[in-house]
Design brief:
Length: 145
């Protein structure tokens, strides 16, 4: 894959906040034609920089259980695990991290039973070496943009 230039980074910045933005609007914002913007987005998708588009749903129920799953992989990267995680709407955020862990997975589930089920599904993936669960008791500080 070619190195990302400023226009590519602009596209990614806008799409990360507005995944459903019309292509014409995106093109106008970055100062390229619609066809040039379309080609760049297609190239970013083909190269794997853009792996998909999603709806970011806010918390709908205050009775949700929030947890962090700390995942250690057999080897990195493991697109198979990321693909599996992307299938579950309860997975809110996945971050690759440094140190002994490989992934921090933030989930919101309706119950402890569902947390256990989701945890078991992820833990049995062949690429997962270890998984530790931390349940969020309360959010003391939370900032949104």
């Amino acid at each position: 894959m070619k190195e990302l230039d400023a226009k590519d980074r602009d596209i990614l910045g806008i799409l990360s906040k507005e995944a459903r933005i019309p292509l014409k609007t995106l093109a106008g914002r970055i100062g390229l034609s619609r066809s040039a913007t379309s080609e760049r987005v297609a190239a970013l998708e083909k190269s794997g920089v853009i792996r998909g588009y999603r709806a970011d749903i806010g918390q709908m129920d205050s009775n949700l259980v929030s947890a962090f799953l700390m995942v250690t992989l057999v080897s990195t990267p493991s697109m198979g695990v990321l693909d599996q995680l992307a299938r579950y709407s309860e997975v809110r955020r996945v971050s690759s991290v440094t140190g002994q862990l490989d992934l921090m997975v933030e989930v919101e589930v309706p119950s402890i039973d569902r947390l256990n089920t989701l945890r078991d599904i992820i833990a049995t993936h062949p690429s997962v070496q270890d998984l530790t669960t931390l349940i969020v008791l309360r959010r003391d500080i939370e900032r949104r943009e």
